[in-house]
Amino acid sequence: QVQLVESGGGLVQAGGSLRLSCVASGRTFSYYRMGWFRQAPGKEREFAAAINWSGLSTYYADSVKGRFTISRDNAKNTVFLQMNSLKPTDTAVYYCAIKPNAAAVYQYWGQGTQVTVSS
Fold it and tell me: Within 13 A of 11's CA, how many CA atoms are on the CB side?
């Protein structure tokens, strides 16, 4: 079992920044691919960003590319999502998730943290 706990969400004005954190516990964190997803009210959950085990490969949805940066600190079992130039359309519950390799499905999910961007 892996437990994931997100933090860092909140209310911010358009153009502002937030940094989300996700701390993992329960299994060896270093070998896992981590991802951030988000779900806006009335919409399906969508992929936002992902990072491989070494941190050298990152992946982004087109909607956040150039504004969001995913990173990880394996020594602290933590993955981050730095969100800049936030837009009202970024308003959503943000979830982190973990899987053992690129080909697998995401197996464990956090409880989510709310991000609200006001115009």
Answer: 2
Q: Which of 63, 29, 30 is nearest to 49 (CA)?
A: 63
Closest to 90 (Cα-Cα) out of 102, 80, 82: 82
- pLDDT tens for 40-98 read 999 999 999 999 989 999 999 999 999 999 999 999 999 999 999 999 999 999 999 99
What is the Cα 37 distance to its own chain's centre?
A: 6
Secondary structure letter of residue 62 according to DSSP: T
Q: Cα(59)–Cα(42) distance, rounded to whole angstroms?
A: 25
Q: Which residue has the tokens 């949805």?
A: 61
